[in-house]
Prior knowledge:
Elements: H1 2-22, E1 35-37, E2 41-47, E3 53-58, E4 65-68, E5 74-80, E6 88-93, E7 98-114, H2 116-119, H3 133-138, E8 142-150, E9 165-171, H4 173-176, H5 181-194, E10 198-204, H6 216-219, H7 242-248, E11 258-262, H8 271-289, E12 296-299, H9 319-331, E13 335-338, H10 354-369, E14 381-388, E15 391-397, E16 403-404, E17 412-415, E18 420-423, E19 425-429, E20 433-437, E21 446-449, E22 460-461, E23 470-471, E24 479-480
Parallel strand pairs: 1-7, 7-10, 7-11, 8-10, 11-12, 12-13, 18-24
Antiparallel strand pairs: 2-5, 3-4, 3-6, 6-7, 8-9, 14-15, 15-20, 16-22, 17-18, 17-21, 19-20, 21-23
Helix pairs in contact: 5-10, 8-9
Protein name: Sialate O-acetylesterase domain-containing protein
Signal peptide: 1-22
Organism: Carboxylicivirga marina
Amino acid sequence: MNKLITVVLLVICNLLAQSVEAKVKLPAIVSSNMVLQRNASVKLWGWANANEKIAINTSWLSKKIIIQADNEGHWYTEVITTGSKSPQTIHIKSKESDITLDNILFGEVWLCSGQSNMQQPLKGYNGQPTFGGNMAIAKSANPHLRLFTVERVGAKEPLNELEKYTAWQEATPQSVMNFSAVAYFFGQQLQEILDVPVGMIHTSWGGSSVQAWMSKEVMSEFQEVNLENVDIDQKTNRIPTALFNAMIHPLIPYTIKGALWYQGESNRGEPENYKKMFPAMVKDWRSQWGIGDFPFYFTQIAPFIYGNNEAFQGLDNSAFIREAQLQCVGLIPNSGIAITMDVGDDHCIHPPKKKEVADRLLFNALNQTYGMTTVDYAGPVFESQEVKDDGIVLKFKHAETGVFAYEALSGFEIAGADKVFYPASAKIINRKDLIVKSNKVPKPVAVRYAWCNWVQGTLYDVNLLPASSFRTDSWEDATRVKDVVE
Length: 486
């Protein structure tokens, strides 16, 4: 009798297990309250029982979509969205499932990633404010702005589903206070300017290296990746591929418009490697998403003292990683950079002026992605030099209406053929060029600007977009003489 009861219980448990298996499951990113990229072919996917037939009805398409899971239970389809601003629904039905996703909007979807300066919330960190965050929180209620957060976790292998996350939410004071300040300011203003719904997906981890956000296939081009015996819970944000596996891969192939990136402090000691790895990461993300070279806008790290502001030629000088990041604009198609030379904080690696960062990323998007060509998006970039009148005249691109300084220009140095740099004076001439001089260097050869860890940028275009630190040389053995600017 007991044996019969045991057999019956096993049969019942098996049937229940099969029933559970057969139910359709969706990835966390595909849910009620989500924003789907408007006027696009968007991806919907999930899991079910092997070969399960699934019917999908949407509120905006008249025809039902019929698909079938494959032998392993994976299913995938593409759906054409519209430009409607009305809330939509998706109804997914199978033999064992009946799922309704509601309050869906069509709009602009942006992915935001990086390290602690992207992660910094509107409410700020302890003892480290986000300027304007309190008012932004107070005015944040907006059903047309939606937020999704991937929580911090790593993995040894690519995951198909997120382990920890905060699901899609409408913007409210409660939902935005812990959300990325840069992502929020960008999304809130984009929503207001375009007057369409906006969805912001935030996935970042403070202190993370670029290596952690790269897939194994691409990271293996730079170093061997074997995580078999690695403790994934120790220094997770520095483990190659760990964050890509757990915090990026599960989001693919959710259709996005573009990506924002704020990272680099953790790689400041390897500018040449960064100049190779970062473009490779972007190329790989785009390949894996399969939607072409989507816009990728990133932030140059801000000046910070880093404990040694006397560093000049060595890698302790973060000007070299800033230079590498600026050069990445030319290495990454459909990209742009937000320069932050004027918003750093000498003793805080988390500058409080996050809205300025978001504004400059937004200017890139408005001009280059959304066709608002009257919106300036790039500050002055060194283009050429000419020795003249015992000085050097510098010319800049992206300064169509000239250059500007609030007061006297500072941070300039000049060197002769001996490669020894002296402090120099700099003046704006013809409202568009600079002339840099020092009576200690009668035969100048090269100029450097803001070439140190901590500096307050002084050179802008007329729309107050700052110039990056730059050098007109490529010397590896330059030195600096301490002096007083003339």
